[in-house]
Write a structure and sequence with these properties.
Blueprint (H helix, E strand, L loop, with lengths): L1 E6 L19 E2 L2 E2 L2 H9 L4 E6 L4 H8 L8 E6 L8 H5 L1 H4 L4 E5 L2 E4 L3 H10 L4 E7 L7 E5 L5 E6 L8 E9 L3 H6 L11 H10 L3 E5 L5 E4 L3 H18 L6 H7 L5 H9 L5 H15 L4
Helix pairs in contact: 9-10, 10-11
Length: about 300
């Protein structure tokens, strides 16, 4: 499976913060926003990742992440000249993904919860068509809303319904088989001229090949695209990290745990950030991993 991380757009909901800076590099407590969705793809075991950004921001992301080699990744870049819908990312990334399955994650989404790695591994292993991830929300009228049966098979899918059939919002993480690029290319643009991701998901729904996994109680899903939600995300990360002594979306730790890098490389990455709590944590992760008894 290959990954696409969509970090385009102009971040209008976050102005004036984003007047001269991509929202995806804004700090969410102790790390850039882009770390959070990137860690999701890495947790799913994905090493080949295409980062899609607008032309003005490509160099910024390259300066932060490079080609991904230091984390055991193969990171490529593509540009989205203007935002024309989430599904356009699948068209832009078609040559990159080729005949592989693909996971698409939005650059302003944070996911955190128990057994998340296993959930992702299971979703990749069992993928047959389209795998979506749902989260129960107070006001589903603001989201794409899915209705599922007991097995998680998607029954209905509505975009911002006036009278929602459920309170299960579709999050910004999507997994597809190799048919998805062809489906996206054949979409009819919306009245706004955009390729809608809900239309892609409805195509799989019509084929009976759409599944939605609920992210249950104890799980956190945050869209960090507004001032309020950005603040909430930072507070959430701060609280969890301070109380539990772990770091959410620490790319170096994820890379080590997934076997993308070894302990020596993890330690070197920590040592490259001397005098910082983050760098110290990365070094401690490497030391703990080295000291842990073999399974």
């Amino acid at each position: 499976m290959k990954g696409i991380l969509l970090a385009g757009g102009s971040g209008t909901r976050l102005r004036p913060l984003t007047g001269a800076l991509s929202k995806h590099v804004l700090p969410v407590y102790d790390k850039p926003m882009i770390y959070y969705p990137l860690s999701v793809l890495m947790l799913a075991g994905i090493r080949d990742i295409l980062l899609i950004t607008n032309p003005d921001d490509t160099e910024v992301f390259q300066s932060i992440l490079g080609d991904g080699r230091r984390l055991g990744l193969r990171l490529e870049y593509a540009e989205q000249p203007e935002p024309k819908g989430i599904a356009e990312a699948l068209v832009i990334g078609a040559d990159f993904t080729g005949d592989d399955q693909v996971a698409l994650v939005l650059g302003d989404n944070m996911f955190h919860g128990p057994r998340f790695t296993k959930l992702l591994d299971d979703s990749v292993r069992d993928l047959n068509g389209c795998a979506l991830f749902g989260y129960r929300v107070r006001d589903p009228r603001q989201y794409a809303v899915g209705e599922i049966d007991e097995s998680g098979r998607l029954l209905t899918l509505e975009e911002k319904p006036v009278r929602p059939r459920s309170d299960l919002a579709v999050t910004g993480l999507y997994m597809y088989d190799a048919d998805v690029a062809g489906i996206a290319k054949n979409l009819t643009p919306s009245a706004r001229g955009e390729l809608e991701i809900t239309d892609v998901n409805r195509a799989y729904l019509a084929q009976g090949r759409a599944h939605l996994t609920e992210l249950g109680r104890g799980f956190a899903w945050l869209d960090m695209g507004t001032h309020e939600s950005l603040l909430q995300a930072g507070q959430y990360v701060h609280l969890l990290e301070q109380r539990q002594g772990v770091r959410i979306a620490c790319l170096e730790e994820v890379a080590l745990n997934r076997g993308f890098i070894g302990t020596a490389q993890c330690r070197r990455l920590g040592e490259q950030m001397p005098g910082t709590a983050y760098g110290t944590y990365v070094c401690e992760v490497a030391e703990r991993y080295t000291a842990a008894p073999a399974a």
